[in-house]
Write the structure tokens for this entry.
Amino acid sequence: MNMKKVNFEGNDVYLAETGEKVGEIRPSTDECIDVFLNNGVHVYAYYGTTDENGEFYIFCRNTTACGRYCHASEAPECRYNRKYAERSGYYVDVDAEHSVW
């Protein structure tokens, strides 16, 4: 997977680094952000971050484990770990060749 940070402008999806348009959002009923890349492949946008090596981590959505008992609070996938907050945002597999559905 080649997860790259993206920005949304209306229904258009652009690479955060270069501003290159890589796809568009189309209306969906599955409560996900459905992105159709320029090559026609359907992928999802995920909210997360990358570590210092560029490895993507989707943010944890387990709200019941948060607090002083959480064992992953120092991990990159913890949305409250400020070490990785600068790189947080929506990420898309921009080189996908197969649709997720």
About this structure: The chain has a mean pLDDT of 89. DSSP finds no helices and seven strands in the chain. Strands lie at 3-9, 12-15, 21-25, 33-37, 42-50, 56-58, 89-93.
